[in-house]
Amino acid sequence: MSSIDFLDEDEHAELFDWGNRAVLTNAARVSAPVTELFAAQATRSRDAVAVAFDGRQMSYGELDELSNRLAHHLVGLGAGPGQRVAVLLPRSADSVVAILAVLKSGAAYL
Questions:
Q1: pLDDT per residue as tens digits for the range 80-110
Q2: DSSP 3-state of 108
Q3: Where does the record place the AMP-dependent synthetase/ligase domain (predicted)?
Q4: Under DSSP, is residue 56 helix (H, G, I), strand (E, B) or coil?
Q5: How many CA atoms lie less than 13 Å away from 2 in the CB half-sphere?
């Protein structure tokens, strides 16, 4: 997976403009689940912008709160380890909330 480039040309240019060149050249090597990495970042930077899309910004704190709320709802509906949850949303801040919520529930998303 680390050899797959998930960014399109415009996203590469934006990261380059932001000065985050390390993301473009260094593959991440982590062994922690995404949910743990997110929780650590949310603890460090609650008020920092986590998602910016179509003029809307969401802080790590907001993303954490919204995804926790949705994760609890999904668990109540039966989501959890060994389960799959379909996420059919256009690319948006809400899709990030949904994907993170599914992962927090212990399920996998597709």
A1: 999 999 999 999 999 999 999 999 999 999 9
A2: strand
A3: 38-109
A4: strand
A5: 8
Domain map (residue ranges) of the chain? 1-30, 32-109
CATH architecture of 32-109: 3-Layer(aba) Sandwich (3.40)
106 SS3 class: coil
Q: Which residue has the tokens 């609650």?
A: 46
Closest C-alpha among 54, 43, 49, 35 to residue 94:
54
pLDDT in tens, 7-49: 788 887 776 666 655 555 556 666 789 999 999 999 999 999 9
How far apart are alpha carbons 45 and 67 in whole angstroms?
A: 16
What are the tokens at 1?
């997976």
